[in-house]
What does this fold into?
Amino acid sequence: MTTAKITTKVSGLANPQQFMAASGWALPAAGAIALLLFVIGLPWGLQYSPPDYQQGESVRIMYIHVPAAWWSMGIYAALAGSSFTYLVWRHVLADVAARAMAPIGAAYAGLCLATGSLWGRPTWGAWWEWDARLTSMLVLFLTFIGYVALRAATDEDERGARLGAVLALAGAINLPIVHYSVEWWSTLHQPASILREGGSSIHPSMIGPLFTMAGAYAAAFVALTLASMRADIYRRRTRAAQARRARSAAP
Amino acid sequence: MNWADPHAIYVAPAYALTALVFIALAAWVFWGLSRAEQAALREADKEKSG
It folds into this structure.
């Protein structure tokens, strides 16, 4: 496929009708992949992977905590990207996508904080530390919550979309802070174990369940976002139809 | 998994919470989708009939 054809196909998805057609099959496909990966990954991580020589059984929390951390950052990057697209090109679907992603990102970031706390207690001896990584992740969670609250508080679609996009772009400054916090400051949280110079430092037996769960979280995010976007498009269609009826009924 | 391990009391709630969050998220999103789809269909019917 040529670049021009790919560009045309991607631009075509900005059309809500084409998006509804494409998401009609992509949503069940992503849902099925998520379900399959959860069915494999959860028992693999919880039951069949080996305990760590230092952390013991609590290492199993890593399989649900690390993907939540990765994808909450990934979702925020996608939210910022969609917001930028909306602000520059005014693609309504970009705003629909941003609005759909935010609560899912908030749930992933909240899950990252909660499971991190449950891992920290047996490993560090503390539920919470005002460590640079933990604090910047808390800020990310609060930014997601702020975005959701802002969109819920602004009834007007266009004004809410603009304000939300500005907030999302301003909050994106926190992403490099979350990522590099373990390098810039002396933190209790350990530095990167997989994506680092010199290759992964975790045992190969732990890579399988970790990546399976990361795939499950990603597929679940895609399925939930598509479902949420479809719901938003239906709501917009309903409002448009109601407005048309009100206009035609007016004397 | 050795359930007799003292760390198991932290692992079990972490997995239970994760399962709960995903179930709640899916239920909320798909319930919203179903409601929105039904409302759009009703509105389309009203437009057709009137």
Observations:
- Chain A touches chain B at residues 38, 42, 46-47, 51, 55-58, 60-61, 64-65, 68, 103-104, 107, 110-111, 114-115, 118-119, 121-122, 220, 224, 227-228, 230-232, 234-235, 237-238, 241-242, 244-245 (CB under 8 Å).
- Residues 45 and 160 of chain A are 41 Å apart (CA to CA).
